[in-house]
Amino acid sequence: MEEIIKKYGRQVKFDQNITWEEASKLFNAETGLKISGDALRKRYSRIDIDEIPATEYHKVSGDGTIEAQKIVNLSTKEKDNPQLVLSALGYNPSEWQLDYMLFSNWQQHTKEKTTKQLYAVKFKIKPKTAEISVEEAYKAMENVFKDTKPLDIPNKKIDKELDEDKLLVLTAIEAHLGKVADDIIGAKYDRHIVKERVMQVIEETVQFQRQEKCDSCLVIVGGDFFNSESNSQTTGGTPQINDTRPNKMFEIGCDLYKLIILTLRQEFNHIEVKLNAGNHARNMEGMLYTALKMKFENDSVVNFYNDNPNTSAYKWGKTAIFLNHGDANEKRLLPSMSAQFPEIWGTTTYRYLLSQHLHKRLALDNENGITFIRTPAICENDEWHEVNRYGIGVIPQQQLMVFHKQKPLVTDRFISFEESKKKTLTLKEKTKK
């Protein structure tokens, strides 16, 4: 009797091809009893059915590890091959390392009177990282540095129409160059999209400058411009999945920032470049900064600094601009600026700390005599961000700011990449249809 209850109960609970009332009629016809659908449901709920799997779940850890349970239709041959199981679960075996895999199974009876062998697969996987030695990483970088000679740039005349009191700040471009995201979890993102977005940043920055007519521009390099170090991990050792090899990622980054500086050089009398390294690729961004410095070594317009890559300060008249990626202890970060930069702090009236890290724009917050501003990112969410619900619905943006030597922050502008959300919506609509 118990097996008959299980049989019809499963058709309601798991196959979902009949209701409890329909199940009770089939049950009564087979057993000769006369019980209602509700009575059959209660009898079924009292039976301990160990072989029925738990519901599906999916958890992503900060290091990219995935622990999940999924229900899939597998043949016996597929079940015995972990690589085929990974593919059936939706993961590329070449990109994921299997820690463990457990199975429980049952049969599903369809309306077409066929039977499927279903498995609840409980598994844990980690992203594979590219096997690259320190020597190999340095060799990859040498391919860029060996041709890094100063550019032969003609001298530039001073544009007297520009306002000597105004400074335009191109905040760190948090692009996560190398990151991969697809339309399934949000919007597509790869190195080609990074190039498109940086080109848009350049174009709109030029338009903004022609409106504001600032004498100088502060270009901030870093802030997680790269998605990982050369070993496909963050600086802290968290594995990342990238869409290109480290040497190619580095070359693309150098070319993009070289184009940024060369283009803006035509629009300003002075270009100041500072490093504000992020937590994903602190070393790679340091090398990027060094390569750019070598390129513009003899230029009279572009100026680079040799200061702390993690926390630094820049003075513009009565304004102090402090730089830190923002991944450190926020409560200690704000009050520490006056102690670390006492001279700049003591000779300024308006003080700003520019940070990134959270991939979203945060409102101005004035505390400890300093205004704290988090700037947004131009990148899309990857699977880890989507699963952990970070940045859901946030539109990728790049922030520009204008400061004055004698006044507080004058104005800012946001370059938005809303088209990515429209493309995602269109894809979902098509899928629905």
Protein traits:
3 domains; disordered C terminus; Purple Acid Phosphatase, chain A, domain 2; 433 residues; 13 helices; alpha/beta; elongated
Q: Would you give an account of this structure?
A:
This protein is α/β, with parallel strands linked by helices and 433 residues long. It has 3 domains: 1-49; 54-128, no CATH class; 134-432, Metallo-dependent phosphatases (Purple Acid Phosphatase, chain A, domain 2). It has helices at 2-15, 20-31, 37-45, 76-79, 82-89, 134-145, 191-212, 246-265, 282-295, 330-340, 342-346, 383-387, 419-432, and strands spanning 57-60, 66-73, 96-109, 115-127, 163-170, 214-222, 270-276, 302-304, 311-316, 319-324, 350-355, 365-367, 370-374, 397-404, 411-416. The strands form 3 sheets. A 6-stranded mixed sheet has the order 8-7-6-5-14-15, with helices on one face. α1 (2-15) crosses α3 (37-45). The longest helix is centred in the middle third of the chain and has 22 residues, at 191-212. The two termini are 44 Å apart.
| Number of E strands | 15
**Helical stretch tally:** 13
Q: List segments where confidence is low: pLDDT < 50 over at least 5 consecutive residues.
A: 48-53, 420-433
Helix and strand run = HHHEEHHEEHEHEHEHEEEHHEEEHEEH
**Integer count of domains:** 3
Most strands sheet: 6 strands, mixed
**How would you classify the helix and strand content by structural class?**
alpha/beta
Rg (CA only): 29 Å
The CATH class label of the largest domain is Alpha Beta
Give the CA-CA distance, first to last residue: 44 Å
Quaternary arrangement of the chains shown? single chain
How large a portion of the residues is in β-strands, by DSSP E?
A: 15-25%
Helix content: 25-40%
For the residues shown, what is the average pLDDT?
82
